[in-house]
What we know:
Elements: H1 2-8, E1 13-16, H2 30-40, H3 46-61, E2 65-69, H4 72-85, H5 89-94, E3 104-108, H6 117-121, E4 125-129, H7 133-136, H8 145-151, E5 156-162, H9 171-180, E6 185-188, H10 198-204, E7 209-213, E8 225-229, H11 231-241, H12 279-294, H13 297-315, E9 321-328, E10 334-341, H14 350-359, E11 363-366, E12 375-378, H15 388-400
Parallel strand pairs: 1-11, 3-4, 3-5, 5-6, 6-7
Antiparallel strand pairs: 2-8, 7-8, 9-10, 10-12
Amino acid sequence: MTDFFEHHGLTRVINATGTVTRLGASPLHPDVIAAMADAAQYSIDIAELQGHASSQISQLTGADAGIVTSGAMAGLLLGAAACIAGLDPVKMGRLPDTAGMRDEFVVARSHRNSYDHGVRAAGARLIEVGLSDRLTGAGVRDTEAWEIDGAIGDRTAGVLYLARADARPDLATIVRVAHARDIPVLVDAAAELPPAGNLRRFIEAGADLVVFSGGKGIGGPSASGILCGRRRLVASALLQQLDLDYVSGDWQPPASLIDRHELAAVPRHGIGRGCKVGKEQIVGLLAALRRFSQDDDATRNQRWGAVVAALLDALEPLTAVRARRIEDAGHGNLPLVEIRLAPGVQQASATQLAARLRAASPAVHVDATNADAGVLILVPTCLRSEDVVPIASAFAHALAADP
Ligand SMILES: *Cc1c(COP(=O)(O)O)cnc(C)c1O
C-alpha cells in the first residue's frame, strides 16, 4: 500500500475521524473485497440482483423490501421520488418537475442538514416547522408533533425525519401523526449504525422508508447504501434507479419487489438513474451487511477498545496532553479517545494541533469538531493496530513544534 502512494505521488492518510466519505469511508474487510472481486467478473441482471438484495435486506431489517443505493443521500433522493411519483411512469418521467403533484416534505427545523439536498433534488420542497430553542439554549422545547400535523396538507408527499439518538419529537409520535393523515415517513438513519438494533428500530417504529449509509458503520463500499421499507415505495425507487432500456414491453422485473401488473408501462430512465449501483457495490454491501449483523456491538467495541487502549498507552508519555477513553452513547457505546490540552502548558491550540497532524507524513486526521473547546477525538473505526505508533509520533512532533 505504501508503494501505491509513492507510485502515484499521493498522500498517505491515517484516518482517526471515523468513516467519513472525504477520506474514502470505511476500509473494506477482505471478505467484502473478495465478494466484490468475484462479482466483478460476471455479467448479471441488475434488477434480479436487486431482488436478491431485497430479500436479504428485508430479513435483516424487518422491512417489506429494500434495495442497494449508491449511498444514503442517493437513498433520500430515491425515497423522495418514490413518495412523489408512486408507481406512475408519467410522474416518474417528469421529475424533478413536480407541477400538479404532491411534492412537499414536512420537516422539523432541527432536522434540517446538508444531506436533505437529496430530498430536494427529487423536486421536493421542504416545509420547515417548529423551533428548536432547546438547542440554542434560549428555551427548552423542540418542534412538536402538532406543528408537523399543522403543516400537512393537500401538497404533502411525506415527512422527513433525521434519526439521531437525541432527535425530537420521537419517531413513533411523528409516525402516528403522519399515518393519521395517510402520509409516509422517510427516515434518514445514514449514520445510526451501530448500534445493530437500529437496523430494525425505525421500521419497527413504523417508518415507511429508511436510508442507511453503506460506507459508514456497516463497513461496505463508500458508494453504497440501503433504502428499505414498504414494497410499493421501494419498487418505485428501484424503477427510478434502474437502467430501463428494454425494447419489448414484456420485461419481467423481480416479482418479489415489483408487481408488473401495477405498472401501466415500463418507465423511462428515472431521476435516480444517475445514482446507479454496479454489481460490485450491491454484492459488496450485502457481504458487509452480513458481517455487520453477525457481530454484536460488544464484540465490535472490544475490537475497537483494543485500538483505543493501545492509543492511550502510546500517548501516555506526552505530558502536554491528557488522553482518556470515552464512549459514544448514541452509537452503541463505541469507545473513543478524548484528548485535551494539559492546563498550564504554553502550547499550540487544539485547532493548530489538528492542522499540524494533517500536515504530517503520513497525514493524521482527527475529529476536530470541538477543537474550539480544546478537545480532539480519535475515532478507532478506520484505524488498524499499525496506525498507533505513527499517530503517537505525529502528536509528539506536533506538540514539540513552537506554539
Ligand atoms: C453521512 C450521512 C448521509 C450521507 O450518506 P452517504 O452514504 O455518504 O450518501 C446522509 N445523512 C446523514 C445524516 C449522514 O450523516
